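== Sequence entry ==
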Amino acid sequence: MPAITGETTRRDAEQARARIVEASRAVLLEVGTGGWTVDAVARRAGCAKGLVHYHFGTKGALLLASAAQIAAARWRRIAAGLELRGPAAIDALWDSVLAAVRSGETRARFGLLALPGTSAAFAPPEVLLEELADRFQDAFDQDDIGLADAGLLLAALNGLEMLLLAGTDESAVREAYHRLLLYLVG
């Protein structure tokens, strides 16, 4: 039998942490912050509640790790949409809005934003805004999209998601989305 090394233990701990964060994210997407519990996360991760506490110490630390994972997935989805050009980019960004609402991500994200200590995970770093501005310029052949416009786009996508989450007619929200893009690229 091979000896257990520090590297094996460290890798096992990293895998356990990743499994717990993924379970937490899944619970958040299903039930939002109102139904999220450490017990539900442990059940989803297939581990004891004590192991969750061992790896994260506090609920807040686990929620912050979950928020960071949700935010990173959102940035990747938006950036991927802007890898396309013109109408394909417009459709991909709209699809990212719908996917966020339908998956429960929007409800989870805004629920997490209301909790102390998690909002920093959702604040886009300046480098991300710069990348978003650059991709937006490339996707729509624009010369003057700056950080403020990139921030406006992100804020508008948040607003569109909230309208859909609140039950606003999808076609009306999509029309607002198209008007926003006309403003930004017009």
About this structure: The chain is about 80% helix and 0% strand. The CA atoms of residues 159 and 173 lie 10 Å apart.
